[in-house]
Amino acid sequence: MEISIKAGKRYGDCAMEFDFAVSGERVGIFGESGSGKSTLVGILAGLIQPDRGEISLDGECIFSSTKRINIPPERRRITVVFQQPTLFPHLSVKSNLLYGFRRSLPEQRTIDFAKLVEVLNLDALLERGVNNLSGGEKQRVSLGRAVLANPRLLLMDEPMSALDDTLKFQIIPYMKSVSEQFGIPYLFISHSLVEMRLMAEQVIVVSGGRNAGLTTADQLARDRMGNSPVGYINLLKVKAPRRTDGLFAYSWGNQELFISAGNEQEEALFELSSKDIILCKRHPEAISARNLIACTVANTFVSGNRIGVELACGDKLMVAEIVESAAEELGIRAGSELFAVIKAVAFRRLG
Amino acid sequence: MLTFTPADYEAIGLSVKVAITATLLSLPLGFLLSYILTYGAFRGKLLLEVLINLPLTLPPVVIGYILLLLLGRHGWLGGMLEAAGIRIIFTWKAAVIASAVVGFPLLVRSIRIGMETIDRQLIHASRTLGAHWYDTLITIILPLSTRSIIAGSFLMFARSLGEFGATIIVAGNIPGVTQTIPLAIYEYAASPGSEAMALSLCLVSVLLSLVVLVLHEVIGRKLVRS
Predict the structure, then answer these.
(1) Residue A136 has pLDDT above 90, yes or no
(2) Closest chain A C-alpha to B8 CA, distance in angstroms
(3) Global ipTM
(4) b/e sequence A165-204, b meaning 16+ C-beta within 10 Å
(5) Distance between CA B145 and CA A149 in Å, rounded?
(6) For residue range A32-75, what is the model confidence (pLDDT) as tens digits?
(7) Amino acid A119: pLDDT
(8) Contact B135 A103 (CB under 8 A)
(9) Structure confidence at residue B207 (pLDDT)
(10) Minimal CA–CA distance to A83: which of A183, A161, A166, A137?
(11) Closest chain B CA to residue A150
């Protein structure tokens, strides 16, 4: 997918100006509420007409004020998964799913209905009305409906913000697998950095109705660590839990992590703030924290008035943050050998 | 005891026939204009709105007189229809037109209220899923407006049942041809010794209106709940 946009839109005193070109399969648009993200979605989908500019998708011009081109939304093949599921209340789940499919050109239909139903686990819901579905089910139907329309680009406009945390992380694998299995590129729009890191490779930051240059979700998290109240969130994907002393032990690089919030599920995702990691130069004799991990400093970076320390344990990395004076005192630099101290309760399970 | 003459039965039948015909004929245009007023952004929208609502505030007699000028033998439209062999004035069709014009704003108002409650995102979703505007109109907006269309129709039907001022001017008061319930009551009221007959028709009128308004309320409440 290749998008190039150079477009302006004015609402009263508020002027929005978008100017970027990006290619990739999983691109994120990150920004706070009111930054202009939804306007950008509307402009790309053809629901909002820019005052001026040019937009092209995969080399095809879909809007140009100078050439007087404005392809209407129904012909752009850009579908949207909105913040709210926006299912048609008078139609069944099946009819909702097939709404876009029936309107797509037969020669463009590459998505198999039965396979999509299987991937999104919608089989049991097909004949039901949409008003009796849970929030997560509704959003899965909404995603399925958007994919079945055989789009060349899927816009996900804060699709998880109306869901609670548990549902949110249950639906992420669905979103990723649908895109991967059916080969549909997406733009993922969110104000959540954690969601962004799970869903997008490249990220465009939008603020005040303008966009900054391209970055990666991880780089963005590092840049924002210094000013963030939650620090840098380490996302730890772990497997094969082993029960021990009321805790769950997961292998992590060449070490094991002891986590109190674990469960019996084979795979799990935990978040751990960079603020919850204490670094020691020497092995502390007795300590209440259950995780004492010997690691090597792979790298350090500056973010605000903090130092981010990349800790390597075998092939795995996690980021801790310390203040500058601590870094000097401990003489932390790439290659330093350290012990990371983490409480078993510091890990929060995401999914 | 209620007593009715054959002319009274005809008046009741004609009233219902005129009201139903006026309502059914107004529905397609009412729905389309409601759509345009709810979702359209164009110059002259305010003027269109004022024109549609004008019969709400104009005295019905004025409407009747304008229609008479328009549809009369020497009128702009009446002349053309006359040439085509169609006569409107002083037939039940004139009563239908008078009722349609007077009741139309009520129909449009009801449908608009319903349409305005439809989540715009549903319309956006439908468009991005490949539906043209008319496809969205038929497959999303129409089904989601059903209840307000029904409610508006009841309201317009009830208004048509009571139409008097415009009807008497444009359709006259011909028993069995254009005499509806209000016109028959007017005639009884004007002739001495017909109080009982007038009262009987008044009761029928009250009953009809009650039934229609109760149905309108019930559907209106369902609309709010949904």
Answers:
(1) no
(2) 44
(3) 0.87
(4) eebbbebbebbeebbeebebbbbbbbbebbbbbbbbebbb
(5) 25
(6) 888 899 999 999 999 999 999 999 999 999 999 999 999 999 99
(7) 86
(8) yes
(9) 93
(10) A161
(11) B129
Contacts of A288 (CB under 8 A, 6+ apart): A343
Q: How confident is the model at residue B3 (pLDDT cuts 50, 70, 90)?
A: confident
Residue B80 falls inside a structural domain: yes
- For residue B120, what is the nearest residue in chain A, using CA coordinates? A86
Tokens of B87: 């006569």
Residues of A in contact with B121 (CB under 8 A): 82, 84, 86
Query: Is a pLDDT exceeding 80 seen at residue A252?
Result: yes
Exposed / middle / buried, residue A107 (Cβ in 10 Å: 0-12, 13-18, 19+): exposed
Tell me the shortest Cα–Cα distance from B81 to chain A, in angstroms: 42
Q: How many interface pairs between A and B have CB atoms less than 8 angstroms apart?
A: 64
Mean pLDDT, rounded, for A18-25: 94
Using CB atoms, pick whichever of A80, A84, A103 lies closest to residue B130: A103
Q: Distance from B142 to chain A by nearest Cα, in Å? A: 11
pLDDT at B224: 64
Backbone angles phi, psi at A6, to 5 degrees: -145, 95
Residues of A in contact with B119 (CB under 8 A): 84, 86
Tell me how many domains chain B contains.
1
Computed over every residue of chain A, the mean pLDDT equals 92
Interface of A with B (CB under 8 A): 45-47, 72-80, 82, 84, 86, 88-90, 99-100, 103-104, 145-146, 149
Which chain A residue's Cα is nearest to B124?
A: A47
Give the gap in angstroms from C-alpha A320 to the nearest C-alpha of chain B.
42
CB contact under 8 A, B130 and A104: yes
Rounded average pLDDT over A313-330: 93
Question: In sequence order, what are the residues at sequence separation of 6 or more whose Cβ sits closer than 8 angstroms to the Cβ of residue A213?
Answer: A20, A204
**Residue B101, domain extent:** 6-225
Tell me if B130 and A145 make a contact (CB, 8 A cut-off): no
Q: Which site among B122, B129, B148 would you substitute to test the A interface, given the most A Cβ atoms closer than 10 Å to its Cβ?
A: B129
pLDDT tens digits, one per residue of A151-160: 999 999 999 8
CB contact under 8 A, B124 and A80: yes
CATH number, span A2-225: 3.40.50.300
pLDDT at B225: 63
* Cβ-based neighbours of B134, under 8 Å, separated by 6 or more: none
User: How many Å apart are CA A26 and CA A202, to the nearest integer?
Assistant: 7
Domain positions in chain A are 2-225, 233-349
Chain B residues close to A80, C-beta within 8 Å: 124-125, 128
**Across A172-176, A301-305, B11-15, least confident range:** A172-176
| Residue B222 pLDDT exceeds 80 | no
Looking at residue B223, its pLDDT comes to 64
What is the pLDDT, as a whole number, of residue A169?
A: 82
Whether pLDDT at A102 is above 90: yes
Q: Would you tell me which CATH number, out of the four given (3.90.1150.10, 3.40.50.720, 2.40.50.100, 2.60.120.200), belongs to the domain A233-349? A: 2.40.50.100
Given a cut of 90, whether residue A161 has pLDDT beyond it is no
**CA dist list (Å): B36 to A61, A247, B123, B171:** 30, 64, 14, 32
* Contact call for residues A26 and A219 (beta carbons, < 8 A): no
